[in-house]
Amino acid sequence: MPPLTADTRIVTRSVSARIIAAGIVIAFCYWASTVLVTLLMAVLIAYFLDPVVTSLERIHIPRALGSLLIVLLSLALVAGLGWTLIERFDQFGRDWPQYRAPLRSAVEAVDANLKILEMHVSEITPPTPHVGRVLTVTESNPLRDALLGRLSSLYSFLFAVTFMPFLVFFMLAAKQQVWHATMELFPLEKRTQAKDTLADVTHVLRSYLAGSVLVALLLVLASWAFFWGVGIDFPFLVALVSGLCNMVPYLGAVMSWIPPLLVGLKQFHSVGPFIGIFAMLTFFHIVAANLLVPALIGWRVRLNAMALTVALLFWGWLWGAMGLILAIPITAVIKVICDHVEGCEPIGRWLSA
Question: Which of 34, 66, 76, 135 is the most exposed place for a label (fewest CB within 10 A)?
Fold first, then answer.
């Protein structure tokens, strides 16, 4: 084997250093997921609300006051929607005996079919000699186990809910100061390039948010009209949850079935209506994924299907459900940065090819 030249050694060290750096970044994203997800969600919300604050600033309302008013109004809307959801869930809890009967009958039917299948399998398999076994029964507390299993998730949720309104307010109120401070991080000869990059990032994120909101609104309205037509109780609330679930890539088609399934157990006592509901919601998902999203979002973020799929897999694995929500904007921002950084243009072209 010929000895390695100096140039080959330099390239090998450079590749190894990049791999190590990538591993460090991925590990940091995993261990600091709570902080990063909260910060990124605050950035997206700030980008979404910034045009409204800017409009208030044009009519001579101070930016700090306008930011405070918009954040408070947003919190009031979220609180009102949360209160409505709590009331509907409370009503669902009071009506649970009516839902439990058809659900129990369905479970019993499945259990009976499984027992019949087990009997047929036991008839064609040879008997096995009986071997005595010692079973150790450990006492468990389901409520305690469930609470302990959810403590970390509850902590992350409370952390995000506590800090996100303050982050959004500071980002909106101190937009100009943050912009100038960010520009000063770069040397003078690089500031024009950094300014163009940040302007492109702003355009991509705002376009993505506008397109996503429009697609979600169309899905909610279509689901609302359909649920109202078939006579499902609480049609708007069911459509709101189902339509937002339908926005989740790939899994959304199945997730959108759950709200009408739970509510419809009280009204429908046969399989036919549920098949029709599931078919229509799947049709909505196909139309949204293949027509609405490419037309209203795809050209805005300029990402190909392969890049989107890999991004969803990676960020979903890293951050779970929040990773699926943030995967597209994160990848779109990476693509914009690669387009403006010398030496990274091939990565940007691959992401949009």
Answer: 135
